[in-house]
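Subject: Protein record for review, amino acid sequence with backbone structure tokens
Why sent: The fold of this protein is of interest and is recorded here as tokens.
Notation: Tokens come from a learned vocabulary of local backbone shapes, not from coordinates.
Attached in line: The record itself begins immediately under this heading.
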Amino acid sequence: MSKSTSLAARHRSDVCIVGNGPIAKTAALGFSQAGHSVTLLCPMVGSAPPPAASGVTKPWDVRVYALNHTAHKLLTSLKVWGALEHDRIAPVEAMKVSGDGKDGGGLAFDSFGAHVESLAWIVEDSNLNQALDAALKFAANVKMLHGRAARLDTTTEHARITLEDGAQVEADLVVGADGKHSWVRGQCDIGYDYRNYHQRAIVTNFSCTTPHHGVAYQWFTCAEGIIALLPLPGNRVSLVWSAPDALADTLLTETLSELAVRLAQYAEPVLGALRPLTPEDVAAVPLALIRPHTIVAPRVALAGDAAHAVHPLAGHGMNLGFGDIQDLLKVVADREPHRSIGDSRVLARYARERKEDVLLMQVATDGLERLFGTDLEPLRVVRNFGLNLLDKFPFIKRKLIAQAMGK
């Protein structure tokens, strides 16, 4: 991969990908390995944190992803999965979901019932990005530019991005993989539906005194939001607590030891006592539903959170993004010889291909958040009964888990 030393120039490539996260990097690798020239346009960022000293154990990321089989297949095909640090990956062998209240319903899935080795894999953000960065260093025909984009124009022949310093990037296709506040989406005047959940995802890590055996736990409470404890290697777990804003404010003022005490009523029966990992770290991510009215525009395709931001209760926001890239690469590869990769019919096929999977995840996550966010006794009884009833129908459970795994 070559790096530009000067942005005061005009760059030409088949594809320009805007973004600097895993989805953007995966798209760059995918198009490069398919034989296309790629410009990866990343926003200006600060310097990366220094690597851990030799012999010093790296701290565990507070940001982790539950990658499903779609992500696993795509990253394997791009030769990225094998480059991950596998001693820092935890397979998810089972998932146990609990409703609210003492008589709360329950739902359980496991890899044995799904006829797979693992339901998903918990991977740290840094582990995934480091493997992608290493692959990009050796990728053919990938040019990386760091700069701030100012304008996007499209014609029947190409798309052109102009940077603030006057440099220009021309491409047959622009892929907007630049997050939920996507600059590319805004430049295309794509409208979107927005729902603020008035929650923040509080994320941090703990050790546990009882082995988790690869089980991911999730509790749907009402007043306290949705709590998930995901397995990490060893006796460690990653917390994702989708907490109402007022509670999130309180949680962020407390020590992680105090947070562990709050979690005890949920965690102790299955994981024993929780203790903060050192060095202690915690982050908070505002949660919202963002549903663009379209994911394509002339010579533009959106992917990842730019195309759909969903509630993290199902843990599949990143997986939807990998599904985007998988389907986009496929429709481009399958296009007729006379069509360019940015042809409107090619992009329309991409939009159709993604419609069902994205809509199902949006409806499921938003519907569950609404259902368990309502503190009405009759509704609480019905939803817990529904969880228990669903748990007794293996066929339906297998369908649900196949959808979640991307199988």
Notes: The longest strand covers residues 192-208. The radius of gyration is 22 Å. Residues 5 and 145 are 9 Å apart (CA to CA).
